[in-house]
Write a structure and sequence with these properties.
The protein is mainly α and 311 residues long. The protein has eight helices and four strands; from the N terminus they run ααααββααααββ.
């Protein structure tokens, strides 16, 4: 009973930390591009209002960045405190991307974010603009290595088990870093983060437009003109990368896809992709039952689905 309680609380703490961490990370990546675009506009036009607007987006970026870093550090430590046996077993593989993220990306972010916030009147406009973009690039590189570590947990590759040490060891670094799961996860995460940042920023612009506040109307209109096209491109890329990511999950983790789609009874496919037994339906909206259904029993109270779409 004590072990079960320990496991439950360890899972609960890790899940809570992960939820809070993921509330801020995608918005940080998205706002990073938007503040960089605003400062690029200032660098090209040298209009003082664009400088003020870039600083406005930077404040929002900084708040999200700080909370994201704080929760992310706690999350990494919980691998050692809550899941020490797991860390000991696969630390040679799982720890490498996290170490690279800390040494390369985190120090890059920490260096240039200081110049970005405190160097407006201390460095040249060109160097400041470069620092802003490098801060965003550093945050994105940080996401690369975190997602590589996560992808390895989903799709272990480049690893061998050493019976002498009773530990897993890395056999091929590039198989870990360049797995299809890691590549798909990275692009879908980044493009969806751009989309989230665009929607968030456009919502602020729309708020000022609806208020018909003359003081902020110019800000809202000018920023919306650069954010909206970027958001449209991000939306199209998100749809494309989301599809490729789902296809990868179907190929590498079919049971995970079934869980994602609430699919208890599947329609089998041949290796050629031809559907048997009618094919599997794609659930659009439904209310699943809390208990596990018996074979052949309906798993939902109601379920709106598209026939054969999942197959």
């Amino acid at each position: 009973m004590e072990i079960e309680a320990l496991l439950t609380w360890s899972r609960a703490q890790f899940a809570l930390t992960a939820c809070y961490h993921w509330l801020f990370v995608p918005l940080t990546l998205g706002l990073g591009i938007i503040m960089s675009l605003a400062e690029t506009k200032y660098y090209r036009t040298r209009k003082p209002e664009w400088k003020h607007w870039a600083q406005f987006w930077q404040k929002l970026f900084g708040i999200n960045f700080a909370i994201g870093v704080a929760t992310g550090i706690i999350l990494e430590f919980e691998f050692g405190t809550n899941w020490s046996n797991y860390s000991w077993l696969v630390g040679d593989i799982f720890g490498a991307p996290l170490a690279i993220e800390g040494i390369l990306a985190f120090f890059m972010e920490a260096t240039f974010i200081a110049v970005m916030f405190f160097g407006w009147n201390k460095v040249t406009p060109r160097f400041h603009l470069a620092s802003t973009w490098l801060t965003v690039i550093g945050a994105t590189i940080s996401a690369v290595w975190i997602l590589i570590a996560n992808s390895w947990m989903q799709d272990p590759q480049g690893v061998v088990f050493n019976p002498a040490t009773v530990r897993s060891e890395m056999a091929d670094f590039w198989a870990v870093a360049l797995s299809s799961t890691a590549i798909n996860k990275f692009w879908h995460t980044v493009t969806s983060s751009w989309l989230l940042g665009s929607i968030f920023a456009l919502a602020i612009c729309a708020y000022y437009m609806l208020r018909k506040d003359k003081k902020h109307h110019e800000f809202a209109l000018a920023n919306a003109r650069i954010i909206a096209p970027f958001g449209l491109i991000a939306a199209l890329l998100t749809a494309f990368t989301g599809d490729t990511s789902a296809v990868n999950v179907a190929e590498r983790q079919p049971m995970k896809l079934a869980a994602m789609e609430g699919l208890y009874d599947g329609g089998m496919n041949t290796p050629e992709g031809k559907s048997l037994e009618g094919g599997a339906s794609l659930s659009l909206f439904g209310l699943p039952k809390s208990e596990v259904p018996a074979p052949g029993e309906e798993a939902f109270y109601f379920n709106i689905k598209v026939p054969k779409m999942l197959s």
